[in-house]
Amino acid sequence: MPTRRTDPLTLEVVELIGTVVARYHDEYEEAAAQHALTGAQARVLGLLSLEPTPMRKIAEKLKCEPSNVTGIIDRLESRGLAERRPDPADRRVKVAAPTEEGRDVARRLRESLHFAREPLGELTEAERTLLRDLLRRMLGTA
C-alpha cells in the first residue's frame, strides 16, 4: 500500500501545484518584460505598492540577501518607480516606497496577469474561500 506521500492522488496534486506555479511565474516574467522589468523588480514593485517596506523585510519576503534588494531598489529608483525614505517609526531605518508612476506600473502589471485571475474567476466564492483556506493550511498560516 502506498504511503500518503506517494499515493497517486498526492502525486497528482503536487504535479498540478507545480504546473500552476510554473505557469504563474512564466506569465509574471512576460508581464514584467512588457514594462522593461525583471521578474524580481516586478515582485518588489508589487510588494511596495501594498505599503512602503524596509528593504530587510523585502529580502525576507523574497528569501534573498538584502544586498540583492538594494540593487533592485537602485534600478527601480533610477527608472523613477521607487524611492527611499526615512521610516516614520524609526528614522534610522530607510523604507522603499513606490512613486506614483511605480504604483501605476504595479497596477498595470497586476491587471495583465490573466492566468491566475481568470481560472479563479470561474470558481464560486465558496470554492475560492475553500481553496484559500486549504492553501493557508498547507502553508501553516491557517
TrEMBL record:
Gene Ontology terms for molecular function: DNA-binding transcription factor activity
Biased composition (Basic and acidic residues): 80-93
Start and end residues of each stretch annotated as Disordered: 80-99
InterPro entries (UniProt xref): HTH_MarR-typ, MarR/SlyA-like, WH-like_DNA-bd_sf, WH_DNA-bd_sf
Domain HTH marR-type: 10-140
Signal sequence range: none
Gene Ontology process terms (BP): response to stress
Protein name in the entry: MarR family transcriptional regulator
Native source organism of the sequence: Streptomyces showdoensis
